[in-house]
Design goal:
Elements (H helix, E strand, L loop, with lengths): L7 E13 L2 E12 L9 E11 L3 E11 L8 E8 L5 H8 L15 H14 L10 H14 L9 E2 L19
InterPro entries: DUF6914 (IPR054208)
Pfam family, one: DUF6914
């Protein structure tokens, strides 16, 4: 099926959190947007899990979504995961994502935002809303992480790669400049 400009795409977004030694730490979230989203013209919707600190320093994992008007001010880079059916709504995705289990344990012996994204993508695939990724999620996440670390970015663009970690020049290019 040929891509349709009106189709909603699903992305795995990388948000720089802090630098530890020479390596940057990233939070990840899923977001939906039209291809070539114009900053400031239409908002994208970001779906994410996060840690809330409760009284007595109890850590509780939570989920929510928000609209983002200026993606370049939020995301360091992102991975294009695929298209969602045109009838997919934020309300529908929110209802599904609220069902994603928020574990206290994750793939690095502690819960991380990418653990939620992994479970959410599995749910979308199971529900028939997203085609199977062309590679294992953790491989895609690792390629996205490497791409985020290698990217030189600037407002108003957000560098985008495919699930193989290859740059997609067709997505959010800087006028007259390469995004890498």
């Amino acid at each position: 099926m040929a891509p349709n400009e009106s189709e909603v795409r699903l992305y795995l977004g990388f948000i720089a959190r802090h630098q530890q030694d020479a390596e940057v730490s990233y939070k990840v979230s899923l977001f939906t947007a039209q291809k070539n989203l114009q900053t400031g013209k239409e908002a994208l919707t970001r779906f994410f899990a996060y840690n809330k600190l409760m009284p007595l320093e109890l850590e509780v994992n939570s989920y929510r979504y928000e609209n983002v008007e200026h993606p370049a001010m939020v995301f360091t880079s992102c991975v294009a995961l695929g298209n969602l059916p045109p009838e997919t709504t934020v309300k529908h995705l929110d209802a599904l994502f609220q069902q994603v289990f928020l574990s206290k344990e994750g793939h690095k012996n502690k819960w991380q935002t990418e653990d939620w994204a992994h479970s959410a993508i599995q749910m979308l695939t199971k529900e028939g809303l997203l085609e199977e990724l062309q590679a294992d999620f953790w491989l895609v996440w690792g390629r996205g992480y490497t791409f985020a670390n290698a990217t030189k970015f600037g407002y108003p663009a957000v560098p985008v790669c495919n699930v193989s970690g290859q740059p997609l020049a067709s997505e959010w290019p800087l006028p007259g400049k390469s995004t890498l």
